[in-house]
């Protein structure tokens, strides 16, 4: 669906570059059909050299003639960037915004036209094609628009579409911020291995492959995690003692509260 579509990425930063890289590496869009902008000229030049795409520091100039415009700027930059492009943007162009805490309604209203807007929340494992993206369509979106967004984010991981935008705050808290929670758990389990005498690199490998395997078990078998946990837990064995320590440390409540707290924060920023 994306063949011959022209794409502009406003804000080729961490996540914008991840998307750019994914689209090029997976041959979704040809280099000559993709362009990116940054705030600083030196950064634009660096991206131009690295990917061979046309880069800009002028968004108005870049979006002319583009079919899809990806907004990958910080939420606080959104109003300024949208008011700069609103005169020249047309209803034939699709906007995909990956900015956290920025509603489709806000973008539609800033542009003062019936512009199709999709909100997307990807995460950083997209860099290695293991991302998780949730899409939420705005008021003027049709099935073709959704399919184009699925094609883009499907190249860098799994994609889900939801239609209740109020859930994007918990999506942000869970899969958007989630890699940070996973890293802290990986770091801590590794430390535990080191404390008990394992070389650090080995402890890290044991932890990460175990997490990867456990995640795939849940995804691929479709079994409830509690059943999979029970299968590892021999009566009076080793695992149950480890589990007791985790429960004693309040791991479940801590993780559940982390999602609630981060969701509230996302709501607060949205307001
Ligand atoms: N990082 C994540 O895990 C993640 C996940 C999901 C969603 N997001 C969302 O993605 C957005 C970007 O986050 P990020 O982490 O990628 O931030 P980032 O690395 O700071 O990237 C932002 C980019 O925007 C550029 N920029 C600033 N003003 C601009 C303008 N007026 N025109 C064009 N480009 C401009 C900056 O250019 P310079 O480098 O030249 O200053 C920078 O490259 C945020 O809204 C965030 O909520 C991030």
Description:
This protein is of the alpha/beta class and 271 residues long. It folds into 2 domains: 7-168, Rossmann fold, CATH 3.40.50; 178-270, Orthogonal Bundle (ProC C-terminal domain-like fold), CATH 1.10.3730. The chain is built from 12 helices and 8 strands. It has helices spanning 14-25, 41-51, 59-63, 78-85, 104-111, 143-154, 168-176, 178-195, 200-221, 225-232, 238-248, 251-270; strands at 7-10, 34-37, 54-56, 68-71, 94-97, 117-121, 131-137, 157-161. An 8-stranded mixed sheet has the order 3-2-1-4-5-6-7-8, sandwiched between helices. It starts with 6 loop residues before the first strand and ends with a helix. NADP nicotinamide-adenine-dinucleotide phosphate is lined by residues 10-16, 37-40, 43, 59, 72-75, 77, 81, 98-100, 121-124, 176.
List descriptors:
single chain; 271 residues; alpha/beta; Rossmann fold; ProC C-terminal domain-like fold
What order do the helices and strands come in, and which of them pair?
Elements: E1 7-10, H1 14-25, E2 34-37, H2 41-51, E3 54-56, H3 59-63, E4 68-71, H4 78-85, E5 94-97, H5 104-111, E6 117-121, E7 131-137, H6 143-154, E8 157-161, H7 168-176, H8 178-195, H9 200-221, H10 225-232, H11 238-248, H12 251-270
Parallel strand pairs: 1-2, 1-4, 2-3, 4-5, 5-6, 7-8
Antiparallel strand pairs: 6-7
NADP nicotinamide-adenine-dinucleotide phosphate is lined by residues 10-16, 37-40, 43, 59, 72-75, 77, 81, 98-100, 121-124, 176.
């Amino acid at each position: 669906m994306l063949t011959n579509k022209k794409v502009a990425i406003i804000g080729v930063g961490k996540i914008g570059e991840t998307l750019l890289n994914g689209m090029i590496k997976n041959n979704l869009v040809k280099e000559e059909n993709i362009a990116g902008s940054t705030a600083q000229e030196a950064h634009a030049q660096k991206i131009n050299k690295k990917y061979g795409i046309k880069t800009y520091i002028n968004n108005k100039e870049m979006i002319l003639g583009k079919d899809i415009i990806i907004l990958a700027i910080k939420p606080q930059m959104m109003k300024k960037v949208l008011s700069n492009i609103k005169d020249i943007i047309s209803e034939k162009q699709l906007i995909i915004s990956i900015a956290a805490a920025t509603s489709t309604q806000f973008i539609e209203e800033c542009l003062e036209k019936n512009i199709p807007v999709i909100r997307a929340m990807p995460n950083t494992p997209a860099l290695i094609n293991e991302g998780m993206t949730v899409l939420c369509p705005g008021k003027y979106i049709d099935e073709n628009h959704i399919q184009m967004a699925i094609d883009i984010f499907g190249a860098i991981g799994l994609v889900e579409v939801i239609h209740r935008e109020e859930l994007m705050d918990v999506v942000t808290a869970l899969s958007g911020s989630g890699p940070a929670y996973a890293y802290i758990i990986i770091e801590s389990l590794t430390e535990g291995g080191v404390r008990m005498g394992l070389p650090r690199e080995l402890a890290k490998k044991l932890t990460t492959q175990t997490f990867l395997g456990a995640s795939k078990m849940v995804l691929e078998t479709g079994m409830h995690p509690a059943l999979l946990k029970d299968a590892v837990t021999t009566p009076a064995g080793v695992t149950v003692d480890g589990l007791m320590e985790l429960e004693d440390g309040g791991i479940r409540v801590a993780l559940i509260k982390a999602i609630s707290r981060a969701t509230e924060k996302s709501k607060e920023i949205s307001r």
